[in-house]
Specification:
Blueprint lengths: L1 E3 L4 H6 L3 E7 L4 H17 L4 E6 L4 H6 L7 E6 L2 E8 L4 H8 L5 H9 L4 E10 L3 H12 L4 E5 L25 H15 L2 E4 L3 E5 L4 E4 L3 E10 L3 E3 L7 H4 L4 E2 L2 H4 L7 E5 L3 H10 L5 E6 L8 H8 L4 E5 L1 E9 L2 E8 L5 E6 L1 E4 L3 E3 L29 E3 L11 H19 L1
Parallel strand pairs: 1-3, 2-3, 6-7, 6-11, 7-8, 11-22, 13-20, 14-15, 14-20, 15-16
Antiparallel strand pairs: 2-4, 4-5, 9-10, 10-11, 12-21, 17-18, 18-19
Helix pairs in contact: 2-4, 6-7, 6-12, 10-11
């Protein structure tokens, strides 16, 4: 694989029959995650596709000209013309393969695929998920000289990576940006000796056999599995929600609030997440209308007082959304008054939904014991009902879900596992 600069671009990229370019940066965790995938695919496709790397910060003018604004970014060229997708951030191997296949003939694709031999590896412990619970468990296990692998379909950090600030995690006098807290945790885990396979597709999990298949051809075996897959924003499942997700409707203030500078937004919810994220959105938006089903907010008192005293914020109590629509550039929400059952429409530039979380358990087919809300039941040592399988963090049944409680779960499970494995 060759590293080039802007002056080489025409010869090394535009003059090639097939080429893939990786714009990378230093001190970039997503770049570190994509590097081994890029290298392994170079070994497979290198006979037919030219692989090159460009240091983005050292070639800013070219990157800007090509619309590259983040690292890593992969661009695909066929006979000097860009084709396929522009891949950025947590790039999955399957997405790279899909775009590489566009650069070559069907016969060449078949030949390459026939040479992709399934691989098998084994570890003492495999942790599914890479949030704070998983990273804490990984640190403890690695320091106990336990061969530990963390697997995630995204990048390390979990939900904390999309939290704008964390002010209650011990050890930081000033609030720390969520993605930086996740970064510190993952770097500490790496230094402890934890191995990572992130931004992968988890094709199959067998909790009984302790086998995980990623990217459809790599089988990973473990003596013990820890489920730390976390939870995702709960959906309302009302008309228009699916259609307008990412098109005016968001579940992540950290990701999208910046797009609503001096604009009006609607926030659905009234718990801790809704109130705290509304406070962040208020840094950008000119007006926030909160829609909440109860007659009072359910967030902690300090957060309630702050948001209710914010002149930008208005709360519609005892109302629920019934549908989302779009009229021109505006999002329109049909809401119902729960006292009178009358409906009306309210409009804004965007909508944010914060109505709780649901556990990420779709990849598991075994009969894990769960509570009535679908969270995994564990004992005080984080054992599940399946031998050799533990669960930690937001995916388990418990009263409080905080970064600190997730880290505590990971600590407990790792100490127990280290002793059980001897």
């Amino acid at each position: 694989m060759k590293e080039i600069s802007s002056s080489d671009f025409e010869l090394e990229v535009l003059s090639q029959s097939a080429c893939v370019v990786d714009f990378y940066s230093t001190e970039c965790p997503p770049c570190e995650a994509v590097a081994p995938k890029f290298e392994s695919l170079h070994n497979l496709y290198g006979e037919h596709v030219h692989f090159v790397k460009i240091f983005r910060q050292g070639n800013k003018e070219l990157a800007t000209k090509l619309g590259v604004s983040s690292s890593p970014t992969l661009l695909f060229y066929k006979n000097g013309v860009r084709v396929g997708d522009q891949l950025s951030g947590g790039v999955k191997k399957s997405d790279i393969i899909k775009n590489l296949d566009l650069l070559i003939t069907p016969d060449e694709v078949v030949k390459i695929k026939s040479g992709m031999k399934p691989s098998n590896t084994s570890h003492d412990v495999v942790i599914l998920g890479a949030g704070p619970a998983a990273l804490a468990a990984g640190i403890y296990l690695a320091q106990a000289k336990t061969d530990t692998l963390i697997i995630d379909t995204a990048l390390p950090g979990g939900q904390v990576s999309t939290t704008h600030q964390v002010s209650n995690y011990p050890g930081f006098e000033e609030p720390i940006q969520g993605y930086m807290l996740g970064h510190h945790m993952s770097e500490q885990a790496k230094k402890a000796g934890v191995k990572f396979k992130v931004a992968v597709d988890v094709s199959h999990v067998d909790l009984i056999k302790k086998e995980i298949v990623i990217d459809e051809f790599e089988t990973i075996k473990a003596k013990t599995i820890i489920i730390a897959t976390g939870a995702s924003p709960r959906k309302l499942n009302i008309p228009g929600e699916k259609e307008f997700k990412g098109k005016g409707l968001s579940y992540c203030a950290t990701c999208d609030a910046k797009y609503f500078q001096d604009k009006e937004v609607i926030v659905i919810g009234g718990g801790n997440s809704a109130v705290e994220e509304s406070d962040f959105i208020a840094r950008f938006a000119s007006k926030i209308t909160m829609v909440h089903q109860f007659d009072t907010l359910t967030a902690n008192k300090e957060a309630q007082e702050k948001i209710l005293n914010n002149p930008k914020v208005k709360v519609l109590f005892q109302h629920e959304p019934r549908a989302f629509a779009k009229e021109g550039d505006k999002m329109v929400v049909t809401i119902e008054d729960l006292l009178t059952h009358e409906t009306k429409k309210i409009a804004a530039d965007g909508v944010f939904i914060f109505v709780g979380m649901s556990p990420n358990l779709d990849i598991f087919k075994e009969d894990l014991q769960k509570d009535k809300w679908g969270y995994i039941l564990t004992d005080e040592d984080m054992h599940t009902n399946i031998k050799g399988v533990f669960a930690i963090g937001d995916v388990i049944s418990k009263k409080y879900r905080q970064i600190t409680t997730a880290v505590a779960d990971g600590t407990i499970a790792s100490i127990v596992i280290a002793k059980e494995l001897g």
